[in-house]
Specification:
Blueprint: E1 4-9, H1 16-28, E2 31-37, H2 48-58, E3 64-69, H3 73-79, E4 84-89, H4 92-108, E5 113-118, H5 128-136, H6 147-157
Parallel strand pairs: 1-2, 1-4, 2-3, 4-5
The structure holds adenosine-5'-diphosphate.
The site of adenosine-5'-diphosphate has 17 residues, from helix 1 and strand 4.
């Protein structure tokens, strides 16, 4: 049996923190599905299609598949025959929400286990929201997102 995991999120846009978690996951599982949640944020910076494309372009690992999903994550996990949901934990502030989600998902689908991974310390403060804020105000986000992502952000905002 293949060990298949799903790494779900908004990825608006994908950051070095996300990529760090994806790389760690590729070593733990046979296949990792990076799943972009559709319609979560009403005003995303990038459309789901743009996010999907960017993730594909910056993911060099052969055992990573990129997809979109809608509705309940556990339903998607079952449909994909994935037994594991991967989530990243940055600081203690992530913990409460992640714990709630993990326990609710376990209640909904006991066959799917949630696994938490920690990114490298250098990325522990990084979030897509913060990246967008800093970029919008003219700050440099180089090294915090892949070059291609920075380029796409410039194209969006004409900076
Ligand atoms: P969501 O909207 O589901 O929180 P995100 O795209 O913001 O989606 O994040 C997806 C997952 O990646 C979440 O589990 C989040 O905690 C984790 N994550 C995001 N940034 C980092 C980071 N810098 N280090 C570790 N985990 C991260």
């Amino acid at each position: 049996m293949k060990r298949r995991a799903i790494y779900p999120g908004s990825f608006d846009p994908i950051t070095m923190g996300h990529l760090d978690i994806i790389e760690r996951s590729t070593k733990l599982f046979d296949e990792v599905i990076v799943a972009v949640l559709l319609n979560a944020d009403k005003q995303p910076m990038f459309t789901a299609a743009e996010r999907l494309k960017m993730i594909r372009e910056v993911s060099p690992w052969p055992n990573v598949r990129v997809d979109t999903f809608d509705g309940l994550l556990v339903h998607y996990a079952v449909a994909q025959k994935a037994g594991v949901i991967v989530r990243g934990i940055r600081a203690i502030s992530d913990y409460e929400y992640e714990l709630q989600m993990a326990l609710m998902n376990r209640r909904l689908e006991p066959g799917v286990e949630t696994v938490f991974l920690m990114a490298a310390e250098a990325y522990s403060y990084l979030s897509s929201r913060l990246i967008k804020e800093v970029f919008r105000l003219g700050g440099s986000v180089g090294e915090l997102v892949p070059q291609l992502v920075e380029q796409r952000m410039r194209e969006k905002w004409g900076k």
